[in-house]
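A.,

Following up on our hallway conversation. Structure tokens first:
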């Protein structure tokens, strides 16, 4: 089971159901959230001498802030609490209790008294998922002031002012870190909001995934613990044939690197046999760099012997629409379509209905728009992707930070692995090889995408750790085997 991403409106009902099931009070849940925040805090080793300013609103997000202030104070940090509400404001019941529990030694002031030219750490507990309607004038002022703060900003649950499920329209806190509770709020995963969210951390507050079952949502969050359940188990009697025979159609004159990267990735992901369909004139390049690959120069008449086919990286466009057509006519199992193959589909929409059902398209943003048209933002993109997948019974991977796996049944799964160091030429070719390989090993399209996308991100993290911005696609391939080790997959 994967973690469901609920809407901000569903949070209250989830909390209420949880509190009832576990026979705890909502105050306990708030304490659990604050304690979870402290665990994250400890992992960051922030300077003990740094002044800490906790900005609290009047709702439960503010309540989290009072509890966090108390716990940090008890751990020996220098804390000041700033109220973002007037004296006449009524606090939420749990915020009110935590407000009264603040140790007397903690200085309590109004936000107007704060000198935003200060350094240190500001913890933003002003507004959480209870944000509704348009931001009131004073709240805008508070948020703009927080954004002029010179030190680090940590937002609790969500940057104040960011709607939990929609695109940002007004101002919102620009956080260096966002520590979110239970599940990542949808809007924290939109690329447009990366600038506001900063580094994202998820804190478990004890709500089991089963407790999400009664709540409807098409969105899921993919984590390390989910992956092993999607893998096939091999025995000691397994032979080369069990690991699949795949055909990679990639590369053209001057772009043979794409073929090398995809084919090598398929091998490193475990394919038993990799055939590469390439121009004959270019055979030496691939045979020298990846001797394990067998080359084909014409599309075989009978394609049924291949367990999976991946097509697109670097193929160019000349006579390639015909090639796609022949593939679709001769092969009825799901295949992987990437890069130039997607651009061709954009130019020949009449081919969409001929793609084998369950196939996987892996566009980056520009390629996405070539088949689905222009989109103004990620929210719109997710909607268009969902309609497209359901209409054509196809799957999509929208590549980027938190790549989204869009399934033909409408579910959309956000990946959690990866690093910005993977934004490098050929990184997508690696993903094509990995997903094709898993398909060829007998995985369902869903399992192949899940394992491929997650492990591609993990391989990028492993490669990026030592190489940072110097990471190249070949480093990601070299790190693929280590992903099986880290996930304890044989
Ligand atoms: N399962 C969970 O997610 C849990 C949630 N908790 C916390 O509770 C929060 C939700 O608490 P609430 O529902 O009380 O709401 P919030 O505290 O998120 O928001 C309510 C506050 O925001 C202000 N506000 C709302 N819309 C505004 C607008 N347009 N302009 C200006 N001010 C506005 C309200 O006046 C009120 O002070 C979560 O974000 C989280 O921090 C935790 O305490 C416990 C567990
Ligand atoms: K907040």
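Then the amino acids I'd put at each of the 490 positions:
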């Amino acid at each position: 089971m994967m973690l469901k991403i609920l809407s901000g409106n569903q949070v209250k009902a989830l909390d209420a159901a949880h509190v009832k099931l576990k026979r705890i009070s909502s105050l306990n849940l708030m304490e659990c959230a604050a304690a979870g925040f402290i665990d994250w805090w400890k992992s960051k080793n922030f300077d003990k001498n740094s002044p800490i300013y906790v900005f609290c609103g009047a709702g439960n997000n503010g309540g989290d802030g009072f509890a966090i202030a108390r716990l940090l104070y008890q751990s020996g940090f220098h804390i000041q609490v700033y109220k973002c509400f007037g004296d006449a404001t009524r606090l939420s019941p749990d915020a009110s209790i935590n407000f009264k529990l603040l140790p007397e030694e903690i200085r309590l002031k109004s936000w107007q008294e704060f000198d935003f030219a200060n350094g240190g750490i500001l913890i933003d507990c002003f507004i959480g998922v209870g944000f509704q309607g348009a931001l009131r004038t004073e709240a805008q002022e508070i948020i703009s002031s927080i954004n002029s703060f010179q030190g680090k900003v940590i937002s609790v649950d969500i940057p104040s002012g960011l709607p939990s499920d929609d695109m940002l329209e007004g101002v919102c806190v620009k956080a260096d870190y966002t520590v979110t509770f239970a599940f990542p709020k949808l809007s924290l995963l939109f690329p447009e909001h990366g600038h506001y969210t900063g580094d994202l951390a998820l804190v478990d507050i004890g709500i089991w995934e089963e407790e999400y079952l009664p709540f409807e949502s098409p969105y899921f969050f993919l984590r390390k613990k989910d992956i092993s359940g999607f893998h096939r188990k091999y025995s000691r009697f397994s032979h080369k044939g069990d690991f699949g025979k795949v055909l990679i159609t990639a590369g053209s004159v001057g772009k043979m690197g794409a073929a090398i990267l995809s084919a090598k990735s398929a091998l490193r992901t475990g394919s038993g046999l990799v055939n590469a369909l390439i121009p004959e004139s270019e055979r030496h390049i691939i045979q020298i760099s990846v001797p394990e690959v067998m080359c084909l120069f014409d599309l075989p008449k009978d394609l049924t012997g291949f367990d999976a086919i991946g097509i697109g990286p670097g193929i160019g466009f000349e006579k390639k629409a015909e090639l796609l057509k022949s593939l679709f006519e001769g092969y009825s199992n799901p295949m992987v379509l990437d890069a130039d193959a997607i651009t061709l589909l954009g130019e020949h929409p009449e081919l969409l209905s001929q793609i084998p059902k369950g196939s996987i398209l892996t566009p980056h943003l520009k390629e996405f728009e070539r088949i689905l048209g222009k989109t103004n933002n990620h929210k719109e993109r997710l909607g268009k992707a969902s309609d497209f997948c359901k209409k054509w019974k196809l799957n999509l991977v929208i590549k980027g930070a938190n790549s989204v796996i869009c399934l033909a049944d409408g579910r959309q799964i956000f990946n959690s692995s990866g690093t910005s160091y993977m934004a490098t030429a050929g990184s997508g070719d690696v993903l094509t090889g990995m997903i094709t390989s898993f398909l060829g090993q007998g995985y369902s399209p869903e399992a192949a995408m899940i394992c491929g996308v997650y492990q591609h991100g993990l391989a990028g993290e492993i490669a990026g750790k030592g190489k940072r911005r110097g990471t190249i696609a070949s480093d990601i391939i070299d790190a693929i085997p280590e992903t099986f080790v880290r996930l304890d997959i044989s």
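The first helix runs from residue 8 to 21. Curious whether your intuition agrees with the design.

B.
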